[in-house]
Amino acid sequence: MSNKCGTDIDRAVSELKQGHLVAIPTETVYGLAANATDTYAVAQIFEAKKRPSFDPLIVHCENWQRAQEWIAHAPERAHRLAEVLMPGPLTMVLPKNPAIPDLVTSGLDTVAIRIPSHPLTRELLTRLPFPLAAPSANPFGYVSPTSAQHVLDQLQDEVAYVLDGGICVVGLESTIVSITETGWEVLRLGGMDLADIERIAGCSPDAVRLSSSRPEAPGMLHAHYAPKKPVFFGSEADFSALYPNATFVLLTYLQEGKTDLGPSLAADVKYLSRTSDDKEGAAQIFRYLRELEHHPADWIVATPWPEKGLGRAINDRLQRAAASNSLTI
Ligand code: TXA
Ligand code: MG
């Protein structure tokens, strides 16, 4: 593997202090990190990802106490959520402190705060005098990276160093919620189950806004997370009715207790889980979308999961991956 990649925290600290980009492991996906208080360093993130500058970045902090330095004020509910659910795959959007540059938040008056739980990145954050702005470490619009190798495959020339923390255990980006004095809203489904957030928040969300048109949030764009092979999101039967002659690989799961899928015309079948375990499915999804790009079949046919738990977030990502060829059902 490249000499740019390893577990040397001293090197990561030194590169970040010099204003360079370092890819960091988190429990969700790898991030492309820079000093969040240094506009010049943050500008390089947008450059490296070819990301539009109207897409705001998440600010990663060591703990809730330090996170509060970057927030104007936090409603009581935010304190409660932070106390129980952070560190973890949750991002909270809160009123921002002016010390966070406008480039990080795209001029919004809110900032997205996350406290990752990966031990290497937690240690890194304790050794830095500033928080880290970090989007997922992939070219804009493409599948998020869940291993150090995924980062090297695409951004090796753009990063000073990749801190290798192994395979991301959650595998889906954080769930993003916006917290106000009166309630909360969901802005992105992700690695934390909404049921857990509801339990601590003490009420259901005012809205689940997974809109495709808010220009300030391309991560919520209808077409996103797309591999370079067409994805069809739906059943094999629906696909075959539309494309009777096309070859395809089926990306699906097995129901608990079943040992096979039954008759299928697929050239190949990949299981996100053999026990319809949504956590396992979430952890595998981006790896498979990357791998199956190189499969000889014409299409990836991804079947919908039950709309509960992380199944909702899995469906969200598959739907967006398929939307780039406008063939979701
Ligand atoms: O799990 C994750 O969240 C990963 C890891 C690296 O932490 N990060 C990640 O970042 O997925 P990114 O940039 O790929 O997605 C962050 C999303 C974007 O869609 C952005 O628009 C939204 O967060 N966002 C950031 N700040 C926001 C704000 N102030 N208001 C609304 N949305 C915001
Ligand atoms: Mg992203």
Descriptive terms for the model:
329 residues, alpha/beta, DHBP synthase, Rossmann fold, eleven-stranded mixed β-sheet, 15 strands, binds threonylcarbamoyladenylate, binds magnesium ion
- For CATH, the homologous superfamily of the largest domain is named as DHBP synthase
The count of DSSP E runs of length 2 or more, i.e. the number of strands, is 15
How much of the polypeptide forms β-strand, as a percent range? 15-25%
Strand order of the largest sheet: 1-8-2-3-7-4-6-5-9-10-11
**CATH architecture assignment name of the largest domain:** Alpha-Beta Complex
Helix/strand/pairing class, anyone? alpha/beta
User: How many domains comprise the coordinates?
Assistant: 2
Approximate shape: globular
Which CATH class of the largest domain?
Alpha Beta
Helix % is: 25-40%
- CATH topology annotation of the largest domain: DHBP synthase
The ordered H/E elements are EHEEHEHHEHEHEHEEEHEEHEEHEH
Q: Quickly count the helices.
A: 11
State Rg. Answer: 20 Å
Q: What ligands can be seen in this structure?
A: threonylcarbamoyladenylate, magnesium ion
Reported for the largest beta sheet, the result is: 11 strands, mixed
Distance between the termini: 41 Å
Mean pLDDT: 92
Uncertain residue ranges: 213-218
